[in-house]
Amino acid sequence: MANTEAPFYFPGVTLLITHYNRSGSLERLLSACRERGCSFDDIVVSDDGSKPEHLGALKRLQGQYGFQLVTTPVNRGLGNNINKGQDAVKTPYTLYVQEDFVPTPAFPGHFRDALEIMKAEDKWDLIAFYSYAAYPYLRPYKKGFSEKLYKPWYINYKKIYAYSDHPHLRKSDFLKKFGRYVEGIKSDKTEYLMCVSFIKNKGQSLFFNEYKSLFDQVNPEDEPSTVTRTKWTQSNNLFIVVVRDIYRQIKYNYDLHVAK
């Protein structure tokens, strides 16, 4: 239930959290939101077929925090987990956060700014709060945010990440404009295909300039990240780095401008 008396009550917003076998991390996220004085009209936790011990913990947390719990009997991957979670959202705006992120004390005030911008200016589809690195092409906007810019001739291949699965605010009809997340494939591929769709469908996004200040990503030893990546995508070998970057330039531009 929403606490309308909370210091930071955000009407019209649902906090959507995707979860898989990390109930301790989920509890850390929910507890931090409460400690920061944040309250939303609804909270949806979308679980991707977690083990029984984690499902038991989710039931306990549901009683404590009053969220909607959307489950599936078997693991179906990130795409299905986000799709079914978003389907359960009834408010006009969604704050999407994966369970291993924790909001910092700086988050509520800046989130309020982002929500005000999105409500006042209909053109924004997504406002991003976190990234591993700054988006390569930005134009200063206001209140600590910059506009993500995309042009076909931009040479930095990270231009593809105009969309990202990292914590962000978006309109809850996001899937109508950009399509549903592709299911049954690896999470990185799911995210990549949404990046392509976001650009092809002329998505408009803002990026918080101090992008490491609003969320901490926490992956403790007892609940490590569940994402696995191939060695070549992580290697720092100079030859592999050069080949990888050339490959990405060709592939990303092909997918964006040639493939139907």
Automatic annotation (TrEMBL):
<dbReference type="GO" id="GO:0016740">
    <property type="term" value="F:transferase activity"/>
</dbReference>
<dbReference type="InterPro" id="IPR029044">
    <property type="entry name" value="Nucleotide-diphossugar_trans"/>
</dbReference>
<feature type="domain" description="Glycosyltransferase 2-like">
    <location>
        <begin position="15"/>
        <end position="109"/>
    </location>
</feature>
<protein>
    <submittedName>
        <fullName>Glycosyl transferase family 2</fullName>
    </submittedName>
</protein>
<dbReference type="Pfam" id="PF00535">
    <property type="entry name" value="Glycos_transf_2"/>
</dbReference>
<keyword id="KW-0808">Transferase</keyword>
<dbReference type="InterPro" id="IPR001173">
    <property type="entry name" value="Glyco_trans_2-like"/>
</dbReference>
